Amino acid sequence: MSERYDTSWDSLIKPLFQTEKMKGLSEFVGQERSLYKVFPAKDLVFNAFKLTPFTNLKVVILGQDPYHNDGQAHGLSFSVPEGIAIPPSLRNIYTELVTDIPGFRYPNHGNLTKWAQQGVLLLNATLTVRAHEAGSHQKKGWENFTDEIIKGISDQTEHVVFLLWGSYAIKKSALIDSNKHLILTAVHPSPLSVYRGFFGCSHFSKANEYLGRHQKMPIDWQV
């Protein structure tokens, strides 16, 4: 687990790496990589922590699992590299942005790196997956790690916006101090549920309004 991340996360991440659970998880992922194709690539597993310094954290968008098809996963929830087809959930996120953020133009790619560089932590609960097998690395230890990260963010910062979409993500609100942070919840933006309350949730403008109220630079959502 020596993959690089921004050193501003050291106080949170380093102690977790020393735990027996993380050592066991590291062994599991290493064994999986020796036997199967695993996504994302080794140097992108902690990409969210590389691109978003802890000291610049403003928003957390929580996903569940990395994309499991070739070329999709690059360590950021909901995001895919340029040149890869925009996944359905992200297409729906863009559709909501068009109606929520004045002047937002529907992008021709799905790379959300620009969000990450502005302080949006695009965090999946599980950080690796076996190729073409959704959920294959769930319940192997990643959730313990990312739960501790969420709790650490809640404890050590204030005025962060947590965007929790779908029942899985919403359960994580138990880890967050709602007196210090803004928690916005909605159904998942997948085609199965998007019409039950994701469209019209206005989470992006609400996040920016909250950040502005607390003297933080709003996010430019255009990618």
Strand and helix layout:
Blueprint: H1 10-17, H2 20-35, E1 38-39, H3 47-51, E2 59-63, H4 88-100, H5 113-117, E3 120-124, E4 129-130, H6 142-156, E5 161-165, H7 167-170, E6 182-186, H8 203-213
Parallel strand pairs: 2-3, 2-5, 5-6
Antiparallel strand pairs: 1-4
Could you explain how this protein is built, in words?
- It is a single chain.
- This protein has 223 residues and is an alpha/beta fold.
- Helix content is 35%, strand content 11%.
- The radius of gyration is 17 Å and the shape is globular.
- The mean pLDDT is 96.
- The chain has helices spanning 10-17, 20-35, 47-51, 88-100, 113-117, 142-156, 167-170, 203-213, and strands at residues 38-39, 59-63, 120-124, 129-130, 161-165, 182-186.
- The strands form two sheets. The chain has a four-stranded parallel sheet.
Reading the helices and strands in chain order gives HHEHEHHEEHEHEH
In percent terms, what proportion of residues is strand? Answer: 5-15%
Helix content: 25-40%
Q: How many beta-strand runs? A: 6
Low-confidence spans: pLDDT under 50, at least 5 residues? none
Largest sheet: 4 strands, parallel
What general form does the structure show? globular
Q: Strand arrangement, largest sheet?
A: 3-2-5-6
Mean pLDDT: 96
- Which structural class do you get from the secondary structure elements? alpha/beta
Give the count of helical stretches: 8
User: Separation of termini?
Assistant: 30 Å
Based on CA atoms alone, the radius of gyration comes out at: 17 Å
